[in-house]
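Troubleshooting log. The previous structure file for this entry was overwritten by mistake, so regenerating from the original sequence record. Sequence copied from the archived sheet and checked twice against the printout by T.R.
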Amino acid sequence: MIGAASARRCRVASLPVALVVMAALLTSAAGAATFRTGQPVMGTVLQVTVVAADEARARELAEAAIAEARRWDDILTTWRPEGELARLNAHAGRGFISISPDLANALRRMVVLAAATDGSFDPGVGPLVAAWRGPQPPAPPPVASRATRIATALRLDGRRAALRAGASLDAGGVGKGMALDAMAARLRRRGAQAAFLDFGGSSQLALGGVPDAAGGWSVVVSGLAPDSVLGALLLRRAALSTSRATAGPDAAGPIIDPRSGAPIFTPRLGTVRAADATSAEAWSKAAIIAGRAAFPAARRHHVEMLIEDAQGVAMTAGFTLSR
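Regenerated output below.
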């Protein structure tokens, strides 16, 4: 799995345990069949719903999407030493190593998103995440450094990468989004009519819309309080990501502000709608870390954002909920 960051993610729609491993043909209509399957991937439940010409094709595509998610888990995990990103972290301070084109492109995307969010999202927080993981806070608390900023910690040269000594990258804040985007690309190439991809209710992507419906896929948006609901929205050719910060330490460790090295212990929820799942995940972290100050940058990058905090609920103009 990607890492403990997944445990901090806010569930947008709850998933019963019975769905951990399941597969069912949902609907059949003239010229279309809808198939859903659920599997544990990246430390949570991945649900894949695919619309295709017939049941056999829908099942085949859904299974191919899950295989793609597992492939990206192998690329981005830092919890298994054989993970490709884990191997890069282990080589920090020892020069360049060869990496796959997929990891090279993923790292470039991380650098771009770190700059776009003014450093509120930054996978260079790996050393800070490791320090804060566990039942007791570190003493003394760690601080951000050049080794905890991806722009200064990472060097890329084609299909080679090197990390500064003391650096490590953590993809927990963006890995599921990258997997969803790769799954969607695979489904498009193979002719899926529509699909809905859902990582545990926290990272979701809609490819097309529900058959015979004018809108998209209906998604319930949770609030900050347990079991609260803020409303619903229709997702079509877009992605949604939700993150939250709690009032104190938890088993998964806190969300870390990459700019200061300090944990975020202010209760806050951020939900982001974007054209792709990678952007949605990165910006949902920026929502937690920067709070409402993230709104101007989000608007400049065509990202819609909702934040709930002690002041209530605020959202960008294009984030529309229905009751």
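The first helix runs from residue 55 to 76. Archived copy saved in two places this time.
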